[in-house]
Inverse folding.
């Protein structure tokens, strides 16, 4: 942190010193071809400076400096080196090394010499993977006689070309002679230093404030959500940093538009949440730092974030037929944590689909449709929805038919026997059979609570359900709740994490006499998955394929894949299988990954051992 502060302060001191130097100096009156002179009296060089008004809206971090063209080859190379030194000292660009340029261009049978036109500069820039190319000419480099004295005379034209569109980012030009005898090299040094200083001042005036020594933001994590994106930033120092600007685009290459300016607080981290985005859309973000002196860093590399799409299609829908004026629906609750609930759709015959019920809660898996017509067939389908109301595709339909009304038969005669007397008549009757038990009891756990769901018996006479819980599958379990007969689910919140519970549900009919137990449903409350094992990695070009052993637990629904970032682990994806292919990895680096198992209760286990693999 201290190093960053000193670098920023040093840059400010340089710029302020240059501003004072220019303000105190005045140019002598000279002929047009001798516009300015300079000597030990520090009279200022006044060059012609141009900076593109859009320069501050684009990013020119990596730049190539070509040798300047000159009547004497050594002079062009020497002055271009001087220019590069001053730009590096000002922390403006990250310049490509001369040896690296010669190696890349040599492979393409190109030369560094004589590149002055925009088209050639663009071609060279794309080969070198830079954003800008600086080219220049030295039309004059020699001496002029002034009386008995020989004065240094230099002409210089320099400009930077945008590699993408060939536009001029900035340009400086000047022709000058010294006011007293001096060496060409000393005069060239002073001339270049002053021209670069004037160029930096003009850049800041038009809004091009990016400097290499302003720290680039450190992104701790980023993730997509329902119609939104979340980015967490680590703050290195609130003493020098004023804010972070967030830019967004639908394309990695831009154009980027500013969507937020986050003022820094005393916290060590800050979070940005982008809202009202499109479903299942990919966005790119770049972030840069703004100091309290209004200097800025270069932006981060594009962050790729995809918003969450619609929930998955509901599966396992079944409809129970043969019930009196009702149909019981069951389905598999969604494993997607973004699911907020379900909409029940119904139609009769060839009629239109009609939404009849909305259920809130991801773990709902049953619904009873009541007050239906006797002997009628109904079709059902279900859609799930997320917090934004985005619906999944409809499920496969399920059909059920309600019980037909009883036939109108003759009332049977009462069977009498024996001699009539004061006693009442004796009658015979068939006893009622035992009722069906509670069916399909299921238990699902999440966040220190357990949700029970079941299917009711076929009869309508259920007055209530008794819910029993115990640590063993024993009839001696304790009753914990009475549930009304028209409700077929219960949420148990009074549990301890890591404890295994056994549940059973008893149907109590309206006469209070008949009961049937459900089968026992066991569930581990809050028990986290074990750590994945056997993680292996193989390199496939610029991609890495990861595989691992599946966990033995039956309730594992997915595996999260994490990659080590500069400071923290970043979650880069998830899969329901035991392998994945990771793309868009930077070559020449070693990458580290780990796997985390996630169960149906959305509880995560310990991460696997870290695996490291290098891409050549």
């Amino acid at each position: 942190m201290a190093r960053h502060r000193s670098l920023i302060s040093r840059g400010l001191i340089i710029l302020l010193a240059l501003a004072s130097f220019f303000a105190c100096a005045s140019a002598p009156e000279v002929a047009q071809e001798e516009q300015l002179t300079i000597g030990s009296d520090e009279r200022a060089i006044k060059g012609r400076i141009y900076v593109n008004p859009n320069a501050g809206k684009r990013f020119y971090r990596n730049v190539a400096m070509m040798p300047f063209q000159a009547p004497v080859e050594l002079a062009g190379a020497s002055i271009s080196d001087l220019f590069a030194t001053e730009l590096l000292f000002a922390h403006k660009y990250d310049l490509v090394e001369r040896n690296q340029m010669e190696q890349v261009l040599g492979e393409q049978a190109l030369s560094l010499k004589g590149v002055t036109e925009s088209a050639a500069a663009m071609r060279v820039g794309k080969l070198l993977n830079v954003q800008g190319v600086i080219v220049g000419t030295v039309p004059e480099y020699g001496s002029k006689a002034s009386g008995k004295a020989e004065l240094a005379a230099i002409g210089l034209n320099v400009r930077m070309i945008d590699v993408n569109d060939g536009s001029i980012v900035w340009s400086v030009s000047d022709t000058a002679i010294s006011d007293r005898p001096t060496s060409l090299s000393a005069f060239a040094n002073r001339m270049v230093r002053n021209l670069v200083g004037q160029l930096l001042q003009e850049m800041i005036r038009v809004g091009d404030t990016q400097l290499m020594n302003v720290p680039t933001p450190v992104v701790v994590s980023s993730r997509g959500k329902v119609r939104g994106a979340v980015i967490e930033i680590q703050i290195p120092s609130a003493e020098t940093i004023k804010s972070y600007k967030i830019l967004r685009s639908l394309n990695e290459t831009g154009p980027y538009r500013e969507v937020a300016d986050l003022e820094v607080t005393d916290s060590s981290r800050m979070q940005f949440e982008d809202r009202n985005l499109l479903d299942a859309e990919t966005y790119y973000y770049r972030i840069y730092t703004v100091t309290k002196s209004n200097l800025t860093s270069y932006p981060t590399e594009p962050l790729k974030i995809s918003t969450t799409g619609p929930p998955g299609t509901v599966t396992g829908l079944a409809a129970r037929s043969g019930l009196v004026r009702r149909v019981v629906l069951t389905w598999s609750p969604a494993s997607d944590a973004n699911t907020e609930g379900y909409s029940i759709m119904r139609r009769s015959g060839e009629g239109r689909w009609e939404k009849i019920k909305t259920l809130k809660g991801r773990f709902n898996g049953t619904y009873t449709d009541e007050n239906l017509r006797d002997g009628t067939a109904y079709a059902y389908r279900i859609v799930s929805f997320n917090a934004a109301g985005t619906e999944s595709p409809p499920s496969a339909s399920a059909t059920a038919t309600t019980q037909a009304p009883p036939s109108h038969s003759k009332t049977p005669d009462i069977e009498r026997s024996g001699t009539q007397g004061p006693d009442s008549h004796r009658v015979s009757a068939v006893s009622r059979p035992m009722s069906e038990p509670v069916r399909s009891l299921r238990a699902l756990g999440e966040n220190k609570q357990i949700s029970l769901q079941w299917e009711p018996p076929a009869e309508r006479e259920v007055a209530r359900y008794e819910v029993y819980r115990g640590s063993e599958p024993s009839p001696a379990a304790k009753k914990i709740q009475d549930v009304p007969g028209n409700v077929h689910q219960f949420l148990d919140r009074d549990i301890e994490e890591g404890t295994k519970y056994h549940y059973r549900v008893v149907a109590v009919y309206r006469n209070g006499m008949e009961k049937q137990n459900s089968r026992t449903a066991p569930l581990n409350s809050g028990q986290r998955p074990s750590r994945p094992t056997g993680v292996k990695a193989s390199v496939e070009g610029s991609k890495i394929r990861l595989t691992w052993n599946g966990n033995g637990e039956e309730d594992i629904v997915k595996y999260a894949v994490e990659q080590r970032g500069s400071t923290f682990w970043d979650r880069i994806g998830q899969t329901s299988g035991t392998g994945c292919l990771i793309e868009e990895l930077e070559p020449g680096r070693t990458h580290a990954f780990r796997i985390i198992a996630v169960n149906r209760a959305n509880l995560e286990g310990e991460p696997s051992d870290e695996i490291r693999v290098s891409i050549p």
